[in-house]
Amino acid sequence: MAPSQQAKSPKTVRGLLTGLAVGACLLATVPSAEAQAPAQPAAPQAAAPKAAPQVAAPQAVPGFWDPRRRPERPDLSRLTVIRFLTETDYPPFNYTGADGNPAGFNVDLARALCDEIKVSCTVQMRRFETLVDALTSNRGDAIIASMAVSPQLRARVDFTDPYYRVPARFVSRRDAVMPEIRPEYLEGKKVGVIAGSAHEAYLKAMFTDAELHGYPNDEALRAALRKGEVDFIFGDAISLAFWINGTDSGDCCAFSGGPFVESRFFGEGIGIAVRKGNDVLRQALNWALFRVWEKGRYTDLWLRYFSVSPF
C-alpha cells in the first residue's frame, strides 16, 4: 500500500521532506545499517565501487531514542483518556480499515502508547487540514497523523519528541546497485530529482559533479529511471520504498547507498502534537514512546507496515 499525496513540498505542513534534528538518532537494527552521513565533497581520484548484485538485506528499523537517556516516569494520575486525532487517507500511516474503523501505523502506535500509559484511548479521523483547529478547540487531545514539525506549527501547538522521519535515498536499476554513494562516485552520472524540491537543493549543494535532471512529479521521475534516461533518482525514501516493492516499478529498481538525514534540508521530524502548554500529556507521550521502543513494540509495528525499509 503506497503513501498517498500527503505533503508534496516544503510549503505544506507535512512536507515529504521530513528529517530529525536530534543529536542522538539511532538505527535500532534487526540488524541495521547506519544512516549515511551528510555527503561531503571528497578527493576526485576516488573510484566508485562496482555495482553489486542486489541481494536481500536485513530489514533496518529506525529508532530515535537513546537508551542512555531513559526518561523518568511522569505523574500519570491526571490522565484518564487520550483522544487522538488522525487523518482519513494517508496509507499505510492512517486510513479506514475494512471494518470501517481507523487503521494504520499511526493508529496502532497510538493504541500502544495508551496501553503503556494505561489509559483509555479513542481515535477520531478528520481531514488533515482540520486537525490543528480541532486540537486547539479541545475536540481532541493529541494529533498523531504524520505531522511534520515546523516553526509555523510550533507557534500553534507543542510537539513530542519525533517518532519517525523521512530520509532521502538514491534508487538505481537493479543491475547497477551501489553499496555506498559519495559525491565523487556520481561524477558525470545522470541523477533525476523533483525540480524545485529540497532533494534537488541537497544535490546541488553536495553532489556538484553529478548531471542533474529535474522532473515535475514522482511519476515522471520514476519512469525516467525505468526507461534508462537517468542512472539514479533521489527522493523521499518512504514513498520510494513502496514504489520499489509495488507493481508499478516492475521490479526494476532498488536502493543504492544509505539514507541521508540532513535536517537543514529534510526537516525536523514527525511528532505528536498536543495543545500549547499541555506538558503533562506531552511528557507522558514521550515516556510512553520510549517504553514502546524499548520493549520492541515499535520494531514490531515498523516491520508489519514496511516490508522494504526506507533506511
From TrEMBL:
CDD domains: PBP2_HisJ_LAO_like. InterPro entries: Solute-binding_3/MltF_N. It comes from Bradyrhizobium neotropicale. Residues 1-35 form the signal peptide. Keywords: Signal. This is ABC transporter substrate-binding protein. Residues 81-309 form the Solute-binding protein family 3/N-terminal domain. It comes from the Bacteria. It holds the Pfam family SBP_bac_3. PANTHER family: L-CYSTINE-BINDING PROTEIN TCYJ, MEMBRANE-BOUND LYTIC MUREIN TRANSGLYCOSYLASE F.
